[in-house]
Specification:
It contains 17 helices and no strands. The two termini are 30 Å apart. It has helices at residues 2-11, 15-31, 34-37, 42-56, 77-88, 94-119, 122-134, 136-141, 151-167, 171-187, 197-205, 211-224, 226-234, 238-247, 256-274, 280-297, 301-304. It is an all-alpha fold. 72% of the residues lie in helices and 0% in strands. The model has no long low-confidence stretch (mean pLDDT 84).
Length: 305
């Protein structure tokens, strides 16, 4: 398939046709025998039960999943995203699975646009979309009913907005990143760490900042995550207290070094399971060499960083 795409790109400049073809192939591959390959375990049943209560008993939610930190919960966004799908399908779980697949393919479109803004090269964008479309992990987990189906969409939207703001000087990009940031934070409160990229990228690129744009973007983030503040007030700031305990090391959390090791392990597994699945050390070595090679050959050094 990669060879076919390269041949098409050499002979044709009609990229929308190739994009549509890739998306259609990705959809067909993901829905193939979906009734037999649908992943539905305890978490999916729990989500379905919560949405049943929301839709039929009007039990509206202010918080979502519990996290590893006692008193800290995700937002309820997932329930409200799925509620109309469950209702219209009469709680047939294939319908939300297909909804997750469509979200997964939407992420591919956002990834294409992100690469186009970042590298100004449609061939790189098409390769990114191709790899996303045929990825073993995405093919298998795209139909998983849960937050993992939507987090990549909102995180990619966050990065796309930042790329538009920094490299295209579009003010709406900062607001778009705020939307992605808030919605990702809704699904997984740990993703609050994404906010650190604002000062980091500003210090690298020294983008001219307008206070009006910052104010609007901040207002967008606050509005889309207001349920967190309401929940904190209702439950006597239990989440804030738990988070403070975690930060001062009173919850027995693992050291930063262990978390970094786990992060590198996961990054290495991407190479291990794709290209080099017999030795994790050599997979890690290849991963590092790939990074060095890409950085040396890439002309846009700042964008690459």
């Amino acid at each position: 398939m990669i060879a076919i795409c390269f041949q098409y790109m050499k002979k044709n400049k009609n990229y929308p046709v190739l994009i549509i073809a890739l998306l259609l192939f990705g959809f067909a591959a993901r829905v193939f025998r979906i009734n037999e390959r649908l992943i539905f375990f305890y978490d999916q049943a729990w989500i379905s039960q919560k949405i049943y209560d929301l839709v039929l008993k009007h039990d509206f939610k202010l918080v979502g999943f519990a996290t590893d930190l006692p008193g800290v919960f995700s937002g309820p966004l997932l329930f409200y995203l799925f509620a109309p799908i469950y209702y219209l399908s009469h709680f047939n779980v294939v319908a939300p699975a297909i909804f997750c697949i469509l979200a997964n393919l939407l992420c591919g479109i956002l990834l294409f646009e992100f690469c186009r803004v970042l590298f100004k090269n449609k061939k790189i964008s098409l390769l990114a979309l191709l790899f996303w479309t045929v990825s073993f992990a995405e093919l298998n987990f795209s139909k998983l009913i849960g937050i993992c189906s939507f987090v990549p969409v909102f995180v990619t939207l966050f990065y796309l907005g930042l790329a538009m703001y920094i490299f295209q000087k579009k003010e709406k990009g900062l607001m778009l990143s705020a939307v992605g940031y808030a919605l990702a934070f809704q699904l997984n409160p740990y993703l609050i760490y994404l906010g650190i990229f604002y000062p980091i990228l500003y210090s690298i690129h020294h983008v001219k900042v307008k206070w009006r744009t910052i104010a609007i973007s901040a207002a967008v983030f606050i509005a889309l995550s207001i349920n967190y503040y309401l929940a904190e007030i209702k439950w006597n700031f239990s989440g804030t207290k738990s988070l403070l305990k975690y930060l001062v090391g009173q919850t027995g959390s693992s050291p930063v070094a262990d978390n970094m090791a786990a992060y590198l392990q996961k990054m290495t597994e991407s190479v291990y399971y794709s290209f080099f699945s017999f030795n994790m050390f050599f997979a890690f070595l290849i991963f590092v060499l790939l990074l060095i090679y890409v950085f040396k050959t890439c002309k846009q050094k700042k964008e690459m960083i």
